[in-house]
Amino acid sequence: MPNDSNLTDLIQISRENGETEPAQPLDLGQRVRDLRKARNWTLEQAAQQAGLARSTLSKIENGQMSPTYDALKKLAVGLEISVPQLFTQPSKGQVNGRMAVTVNGEGQHHATATYEHEILGATLTKKQMLPYKTRVRARNMDEFGGWVRHDGEEFLLVLTGVIKLYTEFYEPVEMRRGDSAYYDASMGHNVISVSPEDATILWVTAVS
What we know:
About 20% of the residues lie in helices and about 30% in strands. The chain is of the alpha+beta class. The protein has 2 domains: about 5-85, 434 Repressor (Amino-terminal Domain), CATH 1.10.260.40; about 110-205, Jelly Rolls (Sandwich). The strands form 3 sheets. Strands 3-4-5-11-6-9 form a 6-stranded antiparallel beta sheet, with no helix packed on it. Strands 8-7-10 form a 3-stranded antiparallel beta sheet, with no helix packed on it. A hairpin with a 3-residue loop joins β3 and β4 (about 115-120). The longest helix has 11 residues, at about 30-40. The two termini are about 40 Å apart.
């Protein structure tokens, strides 16, 4: 079992560039307190989650005792993080809340022969999702040059009109307002409008 004196030497932090380095000393008690409060947990709730006595957790947070490696593992499991994250300060300038409001019709427009896309939330960078509202112009599969395929997963919700969703491995399905589909975007897929007017849909692509 590791000794408390060399915990930071044994715990390695993985950086985005692929390199690792020993965990840097920090106020572990404050770090644990911050993690607990970020979850809106009381001492009793956090201690129960970690399987520790309330008094033990209190002493750790107040710097009155150095936790054993077993206690650190219990803390990490209870907080649903890895042990190294207990020794990693949040990135400076980290943004904990982001929001972008797109007024109806004022998204970034991108038209193709078959679709007219309105990109939503375009002011946010490094998004995990790509949302866009689309007017479906196509009326026949022949209007496409082949299947659309790309990385990630995709969610589709019909807003107006009637569409037919074609996918590479399934039979075509007709969908009306309020109908939705979630599928692997690497599977070939195309959408056409089968209503007299152009149908509109909400598309959300999860970036892998």
